[in-house]
Design brief:
With about 230 residues, the chain is mainly α. It is built from 11 helices and 2 strands, in the order αααββαααααααα. It has helices spanning about 5-15, 30-35, 40-50, 70-85, 90-110, 115-125, 135-150, 155-165, 170-175, 180-195, 200-225; strands at about 55-60, 65. Strands 1-2 form a two-stranded antiparallel ribbon. A hairpin with a 3-residue loop joins strand 1 and strand 2 (about 65). Helix 10 runs antiparallel to helix 11 (about 200-225). The longest helix is centred in the C-terminal third of the chain and has 26 residues, at about 200-225. The chain is elongated.
Length: about 230
């Protein structure tokens, strides 16, 4: 199990046992790291990940709190970041998304007006210079939504939107755990946007395929890494 996953699992256990309840403030970082027998760095990464999925609320100058979600919802949310490694259903959604979304992107390159393409560029320009993972994923969702809407096919748009929502958490987790994910996503978005603005459907299709395949490749590797090595586990 990855160190960050181990830290999350230990925090999850504290909620399961009632040591942490909704609204509680976490002990100071050095104290909590010692309690859980974790390095402060791994604890910090776990807190960052859990804040992105709204399990923890980091308040600058005040401390870190468990959100007001009831214990069952908190545990369900925390289970995702560890248990998704053992569930390939997200991978299946990504496989279908890789088939459909490049087609929608190619259609958008032929059907979006220059004004719509300019608005798409504005979506990317709204990101701050050093975006957080949460800001990037929210921007990513809006960017892809506008593209599939620009395909002019509401049935295809609805299908892709449904597939995209099923992979939202996986995209957040990739941003947390893969250091190059933010830069790669920004560069690929710019390339897709340029192909649409220049009305190049084949180029737009190719870049959309590369973009989605990158997430799929990362998830496949994560699943392989999570498999027990010989002599480990059952």
């Amino acid at each position: 199990m990855a160190v960050t996953d181990e830290a999350i699992q230990k925090l999850k256990q504290m909620i399961n046992t009632g040591q942490l309840r909704p609204g509680d403030r976490l002990p100071r970082e050095p104290e909590l790291a010692a309690m859980l027998n974790l390095s402060r760095n791994s604890l910090r990464e776990a807190v960052k990940a859990l804040s992105l999925i709204n399990v923890l609320d980091v308040r600058q100058g005040d401390g870190t709190y468990v959100t007001s979600l009831d214990p069952g919802l908190l545990v369900d949310a925390m289970a995702f970041v560890v248990d998704f490694h053992n569930d390939d259903s997200v991978l299946q959604f990504l496989e279908v998304r890789r088939i459909l979304e490049p087609a929608a992107t190619a259609m958008a390159a032929t059907r979006m007006t220059d004004a719509q393409a300019a608005e798409l560029t504005k979506v990317l320009d709204e990101l701050p210079p050093d975006p957080s993972v949460e800001e990037l994923v929210a921007n990513d969702q809006e960017f892809h939504r506008r593209i599939v809407d620009g395909s002019g096919n509401p049935v295809l748009s609805s299908l892709v939107e449904s597939l995209s929502s099923r992979t939202h958490r996986a995209r957040i987790w990739r941003g947390v755990t893969q250091g190059s994910a933010v830069e790669r996503t920004l560069a690929e978005h710019r390339a897709i946007c340029q192909a649409i603005a220049q009305h190049q459907p084949e180029v737009a299709h190719a870049w959309a395929t590369v973009h989605i395949a990158g997430v799929e490749q990362w998830l496949r590797q994560s699943l392989r890494d999570a498999e027990p090595r010989p002599g480990e586990g059952p």
